[in-house]
Design brief:
Order of helices and strands: EEHEEHEHHEEEHHHEEEHEHEHHEH
Number of helices: 12
Structural class: alpha/beta
Strand content: 15-25%
Largest sheet: 6 strands, mixed
Length: about 400
Amino acid sequence: MDPGSAGILTDYDILAFDLVSPIYIHPNYGQKILNFLNNKRGILIFILRQHAKQDHSPPQQKSIEIYNHELLTFLLLNAGYENDRFKFQPNPSYKLIISPHGKNSAIRQYLDDDYFNINVMIPKGADLPIQPLALDDEQNTVAFSIKPYIGQVFIVPPKKGNELVELIEYAIPMIGKSQGDLNDIPEWVYNYTIPGLEEIGKKIIITEEKIEKLGKQKEADKKEQEKLENIRNVLLFGKHDILHETVFSVLDEMGLKPKMGPKDGFDIEFSCNKNEFVCEVKGRDKSIKKKDIRQLADWKDQTESEKEVKVKGLLIANPWRELSLEERDTKDKPNFPESFNKLVELKELCLVTTAQIFAIYCKWKENPNSINIIKIMDEMHSTTGFYDKYTDLKKVDEQNE
């Protein structure tokens, strides 16, 4: 909705403001808001942000420049209070304390958070027509409602996320409802209690803490699930940079401390048990190409020349990546064609598939103590040609038998 339009606000049930920067509105717009609150009994939500003044003139003579605090001042003035009683001060705090009124408000769940960006407050003791919903640790008001619109107007600090959507969701059940004077319960009422009321409150706090802990655990578990699914998907089906990066992360997780190769050079290098490795990682829709072997051989020779040390060339490949594992490496669809053997033997290269890396990683994830990664790397270092271990991958149904 255009704030400067002449639309009838009483056509709406909820008005929500989050003025990230100042806006220009017609002076009559403020009166429309009052009509919305008085006649419609609508709900007004206001996210309180501090704005810097800007040195420029309004685009029209009949418009006024509105900042968050100025619009609130307008509401307070129309409630019969003097302008000089309404002051804002910056507040760097990021936490708040929910007041008894806040705990009973429709937006309690919004206030129950530790990640607010509280940069505006009403000082403690200010004589204003407000009902505090939340305070900072010095008892300054940082969230409140305005009399006589208690239960209708909610002024709150911003926090990370889509605040307006969250607040509107909490306010929807309040549409058309009125609690009358119960929206403005005086503080002295809270000095009394009913047996069991405080205990229930304590139980709720404990339950909320458990829910928060479970929520964090759920997020951690989801993150781990996504990581493992990505490793599986890429090692068995991937190619290009994502395959390089995933092989790198798996080798790193298993303790090999790999390093990315130079730009326009080999993909990965690492040392294991005093053995130096340079690796090329390739994903192909068909068999591995001879140029892949040549490229690894060239990197091996170049690295040996530069470092003056013996280096093992390791090709980590995902050939026939679109086929199931059972359909790969057949007579008609070899992973590594025999025509490459002479060059492989000449350069003493080791060939291994990403499916084998996947099998090794699965064994390691199951129990890191059940597999010796250093021994495997020693075997690859001493292998010329195809490394023939860890070729039998079990499917999910076979693992559960």
